[in-house]
Amino acid sequence: MTRRAVSFAALAAIALITSAHVGSPDTYFEGAAGPYAVRVIVRSPGVVPGLAQITVRLLSPRDARRVLVLPIYWDPRTAAPPPPDVAQRVPGDSTLYSAALWLMTGGSYGVQVTVEGAAGSGTALVPVIAVATRRLALDRPLGLALLALGAFLFVGAVTLIGAAVRESGLEPGAEPDRRHTLRSRAAMGVATVVLALALLGGRAWWNRVDADYRTGLYEPFHATATVRTAADPAVLRHVASAGVAAAAVGVALEVCGEAAGEPEVAALLIGLGADELSASPARLDRIRATVRSISTAEARAAAVAAQSAASAPAALDIARELLGSGQLGDELGQARHGLGSVLA
After folding, report:
1. Is there a contact between 303 and 240 (Cβ–Cβ < 8 Å)?
2. Is the pLDDT of residue 170 over 90?
Protein backbone atom coordinates (compact mmCIF):
# COMPACT_ATOMS: atom_id res chain seq x y z
CA MET A 1 0.00 0.00 0.00
CA THR A 2 2.85 2.35 0.81
CA ARG A 3 4.53 1.59 -2.50
CA ARG A 4 1.30 2.30 -4.36
CA ALA A 5 0.89 5.64 -2.55
CA VAL A 6 4.46 6.58 -3.44
CA SER A 7 3.82 5.67 -7.08
CA PHE A 8 0.70 7.82 -7.21
CA ALA A 9 2.54 10.71 -5.59
CA ALA A 10 5.39 10.39 -8.10
CA LEU A 11 2.95 10.40 -11.03
CA ALA A 12 1.18 13.47 -9.64
CA ALA A 13 4.52 15.27 -9.23
CA ILE A 14 5.55 14.39 -12.79
CA ALA A 15 2.22 15.64 -14.15
CA LEU A 16 2.58 18.89 -12.22
CA ILE A 17 6.17 19.47 -13.33
CA THR A 18 5.57 18.64 -16.98
CA SER A 19 2.26 20.48 -17.25
CA ALA A 20 2.10 23.18 -19.91
CA HIS A 21 -0.31 25.87 -21.01
CA VAL A 22 -1.73 23.68 -23.75
CA GLY A 23 -4.36 25.45 -25.82
CA SER A 24 -3.65 28.87 -24.34
CA PRO A 25 -3.18 31.76 -26.80
CA ASP A 26 -0.74 33.40 -24.38
CA THR A 27 3.05 33.04 -24.45
CA TYR A 28 5.08 31.98 -21.41
CA PHE A 29 8.84 32.30 -21.28
CA GLU A 30 11.32 31.64 -18.51
CA GLY A 31 15.00 32.17 -19.13
CA ALA A 32 17.88 34.60 -18.82
CA ALA A 33 18.17 38.19 -19.96
CA GLY A 34 21.91 38.46 -19.60
CA PRO A 35 22.72 38.18 -15.88
CA TYR A 36 19.03 38.42 -14.92
CA ALA A 37 16.68 35.45 -14.66
CA VAL A 38 13.23 36.46 -15.88
CA ARG A 39 9.78 35.05 -16.42
CA VAL A 40 7.83 36.77 -19.20
CA ILE A 41 4.12 36.37 -19.91
CA VAL A 42 2.64 37.87 -23.08
CA ARG A 43 -1.15 37.84 -22.96
CA SER A 44 -2.62 37.84 -26.43
CA PRO A 45 -5.24 40.52 -27.15
CA GLY A 46 -7.24 38.05 -29.24
CA VAL A 47 -7.69 40.64 -32.01
CA VAL A 48 -5.27 42.08 -34.57
CA PRO A 49 -4.46 44.95 -34.32
CA GLY A 50 -4.61 44.64 -30.56
CA LEU A 51 -2.94 45.62 -27.32
CA ALA A 52 -0.95 42.77 -25.74
CA GLN A 53 -0.36 42.83 -21.99
CA ILE A 54 3.18 41.92 -20.94
CA THR A 55 4.40 41.09 -17.46
CA VAL A 56 8.06 40.57 -16.58
CA ARG A 57 9.06 39.06 -13.27
CA LEU A 58 12.67 39.15 -12.09
CA LEU A 59 13.60 35.78 -10.62
CA SER A 60 17.12 36.70 -9.55
CA PRO A 61 18.01 38.78 -6.48
CA ARG A 62 19.88 41.33 -8.62
CA ASP A 63 18.47 44.86 -8.54
CA ALA A 64 17.13 46.31 -11.80
CA ARG A 65 16.85 49.99 -12.62
CA ARG A 66 14.34 49.57 -15.41
CA VAL A 67 12.81 47.03 -17.79
CA LEU A 68 12.26 47.78 -21.48
CA VAL A 69 9.99 45.87 -23.89
CA LEU A 70 9.88 46.16 -27.67
CA PRO A 71 7.85 44.23 -30.29
CA ILE A 72 9.91 43.25 -33.34
CA TYR A 73 8.11 42.02 -36.43
CA TRP A 74 9.74 39.17 -38.34
CA ASP A 75 9.59 40.80 -41.79
CA PRO A 76 12.89 42.59 -42.52
CA ARG A 77 11.15 44.77 -45.12
CA THR A 78 9.25 46.62 -42.42
CA ALA A 79 10.44 49.94 -41.11
CA ALA A 80 12.81 50.19 -38.16
CA PRO A 81 11.06 49.38 -34.86
CA PRO A 82 10.02 52.24 -32.60
CA PRO A 83 11.82 53.00 -29.34
CA PRO A 84 11.13 50.44 -26.60
CA ASP A 85 8.46 51.03 -23.99
CA VAL A 86 9.45 51.31 -20.34
CA ALA A 87 7.65 48.69 -18.27
CA GLN A 88 6.13 50.06 -15.08
CA ARG A 89 6.81 48.43 -11.74
CA VAL A 90 3.66 46.89 -10.26
CA PRO A 91 2.85 48.55 -6.90
CA GLY A 92 3.48 46.25 -3.98
CA ASP A 93 5.85 43.92 -5.87
CA SER A 94 9.38 45.12 -6.53
CA THR A 95 10.16 42.22 -8.90
CA LEU A 96 7.13 42.52 -11.19
CA TYR A 97 6.89 44.87 -14.18
CA SER A 98 4.01 45.44 -16.58
CA ALA A 99 3.63 47.00 -20.02
CA ALA A 100 1.24 47.04 -22.98
CA LEU A 101 2.36 46.75 -26.60
CA TRP A 102 0.46 47.09 -29.85
CA LEU A 103 0.61 44.13 -32.24
CA MET A 104 -0.40 45.78 -35.48
CA THR A 105 -0.47 42.83 -37.88
CA GLY A 106 -0.76 39.09 -37.70
CA GLY A 107 2.31 36.90 -37.87
CA SER A 108 5.48 36.13 -35.98
CA TYR A 109 6.82 38.66 -33.52
CA GLY A 110 9.70 38.72 -31.10
CA VAL A 111 9.16 40.66 -27.89
CA GLN A 112 12.55 41.97 -26.86
CA VAL A 113 12.86 42.29 -23.09
CA THR A 114 15.82 44.32 -21.84
CA VAL A 115 16.73 44.53 -18.17
CA GLU A 116 19.10 47.25 -16.98
CA GLY A 117 20.59 47.20 -13.52
CA ALA A 118 23.67 47.07 -11.34
CA ALA A 119 24.92 43.93 -13.11
CA GLY A 120 24.71 45.59 -16.50
CA SER A 121 22.22 45.15 -19.29
CA GLY A 122 20.73 41.90 -20.55
CA THR A 123 18.26 41.05 -23.30
CA ALA A 124 15.90 38.15 -23.92
CA LEU A 125 13.88 37.61 -27.09
CA VAL A 126 10.46 36.02 -26.55
CA PRO A 127 8.80 34.55 -29.67
CA VAL A 128 5.15 35.55 -29.97
CA ILE A 129 2.49 34.67 -32.54
CA ALA A 130 -0.03 37.44 -33.19
CA VAL A 131 -3.24 35.79 -34.36
CA ALA A 132 -6.86 36.87 -34.20
CA THR A 133 -9.03 34.44 -32.25
CA ARG A 134 -12.15 36.52 -31.69
CA ARG A 135 -14.19 39.41 -33.01
CA LEU A 136 -15.11 42.27 -30.72
CA ALA A 137 -18.80 43.16 -30.75
CA LEU A 138 -20.00 46.74 -30.71
CA ASP A 139 -21.78 47.66 -27.49
CA ARG A 140 -25.45 48.41 -28.09
CA PRO A 141 -25.46 51.80 -26.28
CA LEU A 142 -22.41 52.91 -28.23
CA GLY A 143 -23.99 51.69 -31.48
CA LEU A 144 -27.16 53.64 -30.82
CA ALA A 145 -25.17 56.76 -29.97
CA LEU A 146 -23.15 56.48 -33.17
CA LEU A 147 -26.33 55.92 -35.20
CA ALA A 148 -27.92 59.05 -33.72
CA LEU A 149 -24.77 61.05 -34.38
CA GLY A 150 -24.63 59.77 -37.98
CA ALA A 151 -28.27 60.70 -38.58
CA PHE A 152 -27.61 64.19 -37.15
CA LEU A 153 -24.62 64.67 -39.45
CA PHE A 154 -26.56 63.34 -42.47
CA VAL A 155 -29.48 65.71 -41.93
CA GLY A 156 -27.10 68.58 -41.16
CA ALA A 157 -25.13 68.02 -44.38
CA VAL A 158 -28.31 67.99 -46.50
CA THR A 159 -29.60 71.11 -44.74
CA LEU A 160 -26.33 72.99 -45.27
CA ILE A 161 -26.30 72.14 -48.96
CA GLY A 162 -29.89 73.33 -49.35
CA ALA A 163 -29.19 76.58 -47.48
CA ALA A 164 -26.06 77.24 -49.54
CA VAL A 165 -27.90 76.82 -52.85
CA ARG A 166 -30.91 78.83 -51.69
CA GLU A 167 -29.23 81.82 -50.04
CA SER A 168 -25.57 82.02 -51.08
CA GLY A 169 -26.31 84.23 -54.09
CA LEU A 170 -28.69 86.63 -52.34
CA GLU A 171 -27.97 90.06 -51.00
CA PRO A 172 -27.93 90.39 -47.20
CA GLY A 173 -31.48 90.55 -45.87
CA ALA A 174 -33.10 89.48 -49.17
CA GLU A 175 -35.68 86.72 -49.20
CA PRO A 176 -35.21 83.77 -51.61
CA ASP A 177 -37.72 83.66 -54.43
CA ARG A 178 -39.47 80.59 -55.82
CA ARG A 179 -36.67 79.81 -58.27
CA HIS A 180 -34.03 79.76 -55.51
CA THR A 181 -36.31 77.63 -53.33
CA LEU A 182 -36.83 75.06 -56.09
CA ARG A 183 -33.12 74.92 -56.82
CA SER A 184 -32.46 74.45 -53.11
CA ARG A 185 -34.90 71.54 -52.88
CA ALA A 186 -33.44 69.91 -55.99
CA ALA A 187 -29.93 70.24 -54.54
CA MET A 188 -31.10 68.72 -51.25
CA GLY A 189 -32.62 65.78 -53.13
CA VAL A 190 -29.44 65.18 -55.09
CA ALA A 191 -27.37 65.50 -51.91
CA THR A 192 -29.61 62.97 -50.15
CA VAL A 193 -29.14 60.44 -52.95
CA VAL A 194 -25.37 61.00 -53.13
CA LEU A 195 -24.90 60.72 -49.37
CA ALA A 196 -27.13 57.63 -49.20
CA LEU A 197 -25.09 55.95 -51.95
CA ALA A 198 -21.90 56.87 -50.09
CA LEU A 199 -23.28 55.29 -46.92
CA LEU A 200 -24.31 52.13 -48.79
CA GLY A 201 -20.87 51.92 -50.39
CA GLY A 202 -19.21 52.35 -47.01
CA ARG A 203 -21.43 49.67 -45.52
CA ALA A 204 -20.57 47.24 -48.34
CA TRP A 205 -16.86 47.96 -47.88
CA TRP A 206 -17.07 47.42 -44.14
CA ASN A 207 -18.99 44.15 -44.56
CA ARG A 208 -16.29 42.92 -46.94
CA VAL A 209 -13.55 43.85 -44.47
CA ASP A 210 -15.48 42.18 -41.66
CA ALA A 211 -15.96 39.02 -43.74
CA ASP A 212 -12.23 38.89 -44.50
CA TYR A 213 -11.48 39.28 -40.80
CA ARG A 214 -13.90 36.50 -39.87
CA THR A 215 -12.29 34.23 -42.44
CA GLY A 216 -8.87 34.86 -40.92
CA LEU A 217 -9.92 34.02 -37.36
CA TYR A 218 -7.91 31.17 -35.93
CA GLU A 219 -9.97 28.20 -34.87
CA PRO A 220 -8.29 25.15 -33.32
CA PHE A 221 -8.79 21.87 -35.07
CA HIS A 222 -11.38 19.61 -33.50
CA ALA A 223 -10.65 15.91 -33.61
CA THR A 224 -12.81 13.10 -32.32
CA ALA A 225 -11.33 9.68 -31.65
CA THR A 226 -13.55 6.64 -32.01
CA VAL A 227 -12.51 3.18 -30.91
CA ARG A 228 -13.60 0.53 -33.42
CA THR A 229 -13.05 -3.20 -33.34
CA ALA A 230 -11.72 -5.18 -36.27
CA ALA A 231 -15.24 -6.49 -36.94
CA ASP A 232 -16.78 -3.04 -37.17
CA PRO A 233 -18.50 -2.67 -40.57
CA ALA A 234 -16.60 0.59 -41.24
CA VAL A 235 -13.28 -1.20 -40.64
CA LEU A 236 -14.36 -4.12 -42.84
CA ARG A 237 -15.20 -1.73 -45.67
CA HIS A 238 -11.72 -0.18 -45.46
CA VAL A 239 -10.13 -3.63 -45.58
CA ALA A 240 -12.28 -4.51 -48.57
CA SER A 241 -11.09 -1.39 -50.40
CA ALA A 242 -7.50 -2.32 -49.62
CA GLY A 243 -8.14 -5.84 -50.94
CA VAL A 244 -9.51 -4.52 -54.23
CA ALA A 245 -6.55 -2.16 -54.66
CA ALA A 246 -4.06 -4.93 -53.83
CA ALA A 247 -5.64 -7.35 -56.28
CA ALA A 248 -5.60 -4.71 -59.02
CA VAL A 249 -1.82 -4.45 -58.88
CA GLY A 250 -1.12 -8.08 -58.00
CA VAL A 251 0.08 -7.44 -54.47
CA ALA A 252 -0.68 -9.73 -51.54
CA LEU A 253 -2.85 -8.24 -48.80
CA GLU A 254 -1.34 -9.02 -45.41
CA VAL A 255 -3.21 -8.41 -42.16
CA CYS A 256 -1.05 -8.28 -39.05
CA GLY A 257 -2.04 -8.03 -35.42
CA GLU A 258 -4.23 -10.04 -33.10
CA ALA A 259 -7.44 -9.38 -35.05
CA ALA A 260 -6.90 -12.53 -37.13
CA GLY A 261 -6.49 -14.52 -33.93
CA GLU A 262 -10.27 -14.66 -33.58
CA PRO A 263 -11.89 -17.27 -35.86
CA GLU A 264 -14.87 -15.05 -36.73
CA VAL A 265 -12.68 -12.11 -37.75
CA ALA A 266 -10.29 -14.41 -39.63
CA ALA A 267 -13.20 -15.75 -41.68
CA LEU A 268 -14.33 -12.23 -42.57
CA LEU A 269 -10.80 -11.17 -43.51
CA ILE A 270 -10.54 -14.13 -45.87
CA GLY A 271 -13.75 -13.02 -47.54
CA LEU A 272 -12.43 -9.48 -47.85
CA GLY A 273 -9.44 -10.67 -49.87
CA ALA A 274 -6.74 -11.08 -47.26
CA ASP A 275 -3.94 -13.34 -48.55
CA GLU A 276 -1.91 -13.62 -45.37
CA LEU A 277 -3.01 -13.51 -41.75
CA SER A 278 -0.89 -13.04 -38.66
CA ALA A 279 -1.72 -14.70 -35.34
CA SER A 280 0.06 -15.67 -32.16
CA PRO A 281 1.53 -19.21 -32.06
CA ALA A 282 -1.01 -20.29 -29.44
CA ARG A 283 -3.88 -19.61 -31.86
CA LEU A 284 -2.38 -21.00 -35.07
CA ASP A 285 -4.07 -24.41 -34.83
CA ARG A 286 -7.47 -22.85 -34.23
CA ILE A 287 -7.13 -20.36 -37.07
CA ARG A 288 -5.75 -23.07 -39.38
CA ALA A 289 -8.81 -25.18 -38.68
CA THR A 290 -11.07 -22.20 -39.32
CA VAL A 291 -9.46 -21.44 -42.67
CA ARG A 292 -9.71 -25.05 -43.81
CA SER A 293 -13.36 -25.38 -42.77
CA ILE A 294 -14.76 -22.69 -45.11
CA SER A 295 -14.65 -22.00 -48.80
CA THR A 296 -13.62 -18.71 -50.36
CA ALA A 297 -17.07 -18.21 -51.86
CA GLU A 298 -18.76 -18.63 -48.48
CA ALA A 299 -16.30 -16.25 -46.85
CA ARG A 300 -16.87 -13.62 -49.55
CA ALA A 301 -20.65 -13.83 -49.16
CA ALA A 302 -20.36 -13.46 -45.39
CA ALA A 303 -17.94 -10.54 -45.74
CA VAL A 304 -20.30 -8.69 -48.10
CA ALA A 305 -23.16 -9.13 -45.62
CA ALA A 306 -20.96 -8.10 -42.68
CA GLN A 307 -20.03 -4.81 -44.36
CA SER A 308 -23.71 -3.84 -44.32
CA ALA A 309 -24.31 -4.98 -40.75
CA ALA A 310 -25.59 -2.50 -38.21
CA SER A 311 -22.78 -3.06 -35.74
CA ALA A 312 -19.70 -5.12 -34.96
CA PRO A 313 -21.67 -7.72 -32.92
CA ALA A 314 -24.03 -8.16 -35.89
CA ALA A 315 -21.06 -8.69 -38.20
CA LEU A 316 -19.62 -11.27 -35.83
CA ASP A 317 -22.98 -13.09 -35.77
CA ILE A 318 -22.78 -13.40 -39.55
CA ALA A 319 -19.31 -14.87 -39.24
CA ARG A 320 -20.50 -17.32 -36.56
CA GLU A 321 -23.27 -18.51 -38.85
CA LEU A 322 -20.66 -19.12 -41.53
CA LEU A 323 -18.43 -21.11 -39.19
CA GLY A 324 -21.39 -23.03 -37.85
CA SER A 325 -22.60 -24.09 -41.31
CA GLY A 326 -19.36 -24.11 -43.24
CA GLN A 327 -18.13 -27.34 -44.74
CA LEU A 328 -14.60 -28.46 -45.50
CA GLY A 329 -13.43 -26.69 -48.62
CA ASP A 330 -10.40 -27.11 -50.86
CA GLU A 331 -8.78 -23.95 -49.41
CA LEU A 332 -5.25 -25.29 -49.71
CA GLY A 333 -5.76 -26.18 -53.33
CA GLN A 334 -7.15 -22.72 -54.08
CA ALA A 335 -4.19 -21.07 -52.35
CA ARG A 336 -1.74 -22.80 -54.68
CA HIS A 337 -3.39 -21.28 -57.76
CA GLY A 338 -3.39 -17.56 -56.94
CA LEU A 339 -3.99 -14.83 -54.44
CA GLY A 340 -7.65 -15.62 -53.91
CA SER A 341 -7.29 -17.61 -50.71
CA VAL A 342 -5.24 -18.09 -47.57
CA LEU A 343 -2.54 -20.65 -46.99
CA ALA A 344 -2.71 -21.94 -43.43
Report:
1. yes
2. no
β-pairing, 254-255 with 276-277?
parallel
In three-state form (DSSP H/G/I as H, E/B as E, the rest C), the secondary structure along 179-199 is HHHHHHHHHHHHHHHHHHHHH
Element housing 156 (H / E) = helix 140-167
Q: Is the pLDDT of residue 1 over 70?
A: no
Residues 318, 309: contact at Cβ < 8 Å?
Answer: yes
CB 232 within 8 A of CB 253: no
Instruction: For CA atoms 143, 149, 152, 153, give the dihedral sign.
Output: negative
- Residue 54 one-letter amino acid: I
CA torsion sign, 250 to 255 to 260 to 264? Answer: negative
Return the SS3 of 46: coil
Q: Which residues of 56-81 are buried (b: 16+ CB within 10 A; e: fewer)?
A: bbbebebebeebbbbbebeeeeeeee
CA 158 to chain CA mean position, Å: 49
Section 202-230 average pLDDT: 83
The mean of the pLDDT values for the chain is 83
Are 21 and 11 in contact by the 8 Å Cβ rule? The answer is: no
- Please name which of 125, 167, 165, 97 lies closest in space to residue 27, comparing C-alpha atoms: 125
Q: How far apart are the C-alpha atoms of 242 and 255, rounded to whole Å? A: 11
Q: Which H helix or E strand runs over 238?
A: helix 233-248
Cβ distance 242 to 307 under 8 Å? Answer: no
